[in-house]
Every structure is written in C-alpha cells, then in structure tokens.
Automatic annotation (TrEMBL):
One of its GO terms (biological process) is methionine biosynthetic process. Homodimer. Keywords: Amino-acid biosynthesis, Histidine biosynthesis, Hydrolase, Methionine biosynthesis, Multifunctional enzyme, NADP, One-carbon metabolism, Oxidoreductase, Purine biosynthesis. It catalyses: (6R)-5,10-methylene-5,6,7,8-tetrahydrofolate + NADP(+) = (6R)-5,10-methenyltetrahydrofolate + NADPH; (6R)-5,10-methenyltetrahydrofolate + H2O = (6R)-10-formyltetrahydrofolate + H(+). NADP(+) binds at residues 166-168, 232. One of its GO terms (molecular function) is methylenetetrahydrofolate dehydrogenase (NADP+) activity. Coiled coil: none annotated. It comes from Aquimixticola soesokkakensis. This is Bifunctional protein FolD. It comes from the Bacteria. Residues 140-293 form the Tetrahydrofolate dehydrogenase/cyclohydrolase NAD(P)-binding domain. Belongs to the tetrahydrofolate dehydrogenase/cyclohydrolase family. Its EC number is 1.5.1.5, 3.5.4.9.
Length: 301
C-alpha cells in the first residue's frame, strides 16, 4: 500500500470537539443551547441506527436532541403539521427528516416545508439554489465532510481535476458544487458515462458516490490521486461464518476496491471509518451554525 489511509473517524472526532467548544460558548456567554430535532417515519432498520447515532452524538457535544418517531402510516398532513411546529419552536435550531420516507409521502414537499434556516441537511431548494450560486447556505453534510477531508489532505484544491461519480441530489450534485467552489475542474460521471475508467484516470480527486460494492478499481486511478469513498454497501462475508439463524454474516464495503486503489492512490478513505463519521459530525456543526445565525452570534469558521 502506498496511499495514506485518510482517517475520517479521527478527523470527525476533532470536528465534534470544536462543535462542543462552540456549544459551551453559546451556553456560557449567551445562555443558548443549540437543539436538533430528528424526525423518523417508520421502522427502516438502517434509518433507526442512523437516528440513534445522531441523537447520541448530539447529546455528547452538549446540544439538545429532540427525537420524533412516527408510525410508518403517518399521513402527510400530520408530518407537515409536526414540521410546522418544529419550524416555530425557538428551542429547535436544526430539523432533519430522515430519508428515505415511506412511499406514500412526498419527499420533496416534506423537505421544502422545513424552514430553510433550520434545514441542517441542506436539501431545501432555497439552500440548493444558494449553494449553486455561491451564496451562504446550509451545506449538505456528506459532501461537506468529504470537502473537509480533501482540504485537510491536500490544502488548496484550486486547479485540480475532480471526478465525482454519482449525480444524486444528496451527494453527487452538491459535492460537484463544493469542488467547483474550491476552483477544481469538475466532471460529474453517472450510469450513462462512457468509459468511466478513462474519465476517472484523468482525475487528481475522485469522489465515488454510487452504491456499487468495490466498483472503482486501482487500475482506473491516476497515481497519487486522492480518492474519497462515500459508498456504504453491505455484502455477504462467508469468511465470517453464519449467524444464529443460519444466514451468512455480512460486512460493509465502499464503492472503491480499497486494496487495489490504495496501491496506486496518494490517499484513500476506508469504509467504514472514512466519510460516514464525518457526515454526523458535519450535521452537528451545521446545527451550531444554524443556531448562531438564528441568534446573530458569530458562527464557527
Ligand atoms: P443514488 O442511488 O441516489 O445515486 C447513485 C448514483 O450513482 C446515480 O447518479 C447513478 O447514476 C450512479 N451510478 C449507478 N451505477 C453507476 C455505474 N455503473 N457507473 C457510474 N455511475 C453509476 O445514491 P446516493 O447518492 O444517495 O448514495 C451513493 C452511495 O453513498 C450509497 O452507497 C449510499 O449508501 C452512500 N451514502 C453514504 C453516506 C455517508 O454518510 N457515508 C451518505 C449518503 C449516501 P444515474 O443518475 O445515471 O442513475
């Protein structure tokens, strides 16, 4: 292995420490406690894990955590009424509706009902537009975490060639906007891209947000490039044996074939322990930012 293993877990811990310091300052100097409300509709197991982790870390940095768990058959009107209530609650500075929502709910309508100033996921169309036009906005947590890791690893990103694989609204598109904002030359690749390996081979920076286990191979990568793996994929791991119910044990892998890429790249994030921990740390940072803006207090840099 030649690449630096980019330790998102350790970096996320430093982000959380800074958040905790700001929370203490807000409490002691301004008597304000930032609050994050997380809304979970239904019982999707992965979403339950994420919501639990978010709640735990919110409390650990000294903020208030408000969890709203709703039945899977909650009506759109009831969900919108809850968002309305959270929008007007002064103790709530950030609102996150855990996605995906059950199929009978209109995701875009629900997200756009959140007060943009409390939209700590950065998915509201106002925040998307502000980010796209280079104005102050709430920035989506996963791409923000990737950007922080890249800046920490590389310093200035100006003039670098970046390829983002994936064009989703929650990762790929905002990631491309952030890299453009840092003066990269950005290419967005997707399922219709022709000769993806050749496109990736041009890049100084590769961000993979696809959802396909270990798709990006070492022989696609320009020597010395920095590779950020957003993917979280659960695959069977027969080498780990079987569960009590006889099913095969599983493990998490990214969209990047870590071993072959690490032999060529300059730096690469592992899965787990790379981008994942940064996402929640950035959610906490966004909540502090939203709180500072709401109270006209200097926000963290
Ligand atoms: P989406 O499914 O919304 O988007 C996937 C993108 O990958 C699409 O744009 C799709 O192209 C593209 N794609 C699919 N197949 C290929 C292919 N063969 N070649 C090139 N591009 C392809 O996923 P998300 O953006 O929501 O998530 C991506 C991954 O990141 C997932 O594994 C998810 O679990 C993970 N994730 C991790 C987070 C974290 O905190 N670490 C947070 C959010 C997501 P097209 O548009 O043409 O269909």
């Amino acid at each position: 292995m030649t690449a630096t293993r980019i330790d998102g877990k350790a970096f996320a811990a430093t982000v959380r420490e800074k958040v905790a310091t700001h929370v203490t300052r807000l409490k002691e100097s301004h008597s304000i406690t930032p609050g994050l409300a997380v809304v979970l509709v239904g019982e999707d197991p992965a979403s339950q894990v994420y919501v639990r982790a978010k709640g735990k870390q919110t409390v650990e940095v000294g903020m208030n955590s408000f969890e709203h768990k709703l039945e899977a058959d909650t009506s759109q009107a009831d969900l919108l009424a809850l968002i309305d209530q959270l929008n007007s609650d002064p103790s709530v500075h950030g609102i996150l509706v855990q996605l995906p929502l059950p199929a009978h709910l209109d995701e875009a309508l629900v997200i756009n009902a959140i007060d943009p100033a409390k939209d700590v996921d950065g998915f509201h169309i106002s925040n998307v537009g502000l980010l796209g036009t280079g104005q102050k906005s709430m920035v989506p947590c996963t791409p923000l975490g990737c950007l922080m890791l890249l800046r920490d690893q590389l310093g200035s990103l100006s003039g670098k060639s970046a390829v983002v694989i994936g064009r989703s609204n929650i990762v790929g598109k905002p990631m491309a906007q952030l890299l453009l904002g840092d003066s990269c030359t950005v290419t967005i690749a997707h399922s219709r891209t022709q000769d993806l390996a050749a496109v990736v081979a041009q890049a100084d920076i590769v961000v993979a947000a696809v959802g396909r286990p270990e798709m990006v191979k070492g022989d696609w990568i320009k020597p010395g490039a920095t590779v950020i793996d957003v993917g979280i994929n659960r695959i069977d791991a027969p080498e780990r044996g079987t569960n009590e119910d006889g099913t095969t044990k599983t493990r998490l892998v990214g969209d990047v074939d870590f071993a072959s890429v690490a032999a060529v790249a300059g730096g690469v994030t592992p899965v787990p322990g790379g981008v994942g921990p940064m996402t929640i740390a950035c959610l906490l940072a966004n909540t502090v930012t939203a709180c500072c803006r709401a109270h006209d207090v200097a926000e963290p840099e």
